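Dig into my protein:

:::
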Amino acid sequence: MRLKGAKHVDYAMKCNKWYKLRPGDYTFTTWVGDDQLTYRVVRQQDGWLLSRKVAGAGLLILGAPAKTLSEAQAVAEADAEVGL
């Protein structure tokens, strides 16, 4: 069976969108090559804590808590651009 619109499928895999799981808890998933990266931003008392999970690997906390949600999201998006 031949897949139609392969470019569309590839684009859909790279399209990053933040999802609100519940108040103070956001996530998005992206792909770098064949590796799936899932970023999660959770509100803590001292700021927004950013973590990254690579499929098949452990959880990694990225730096100190950010002051704002948009700052934490920018760090996650920049990290995803750099890749693994």
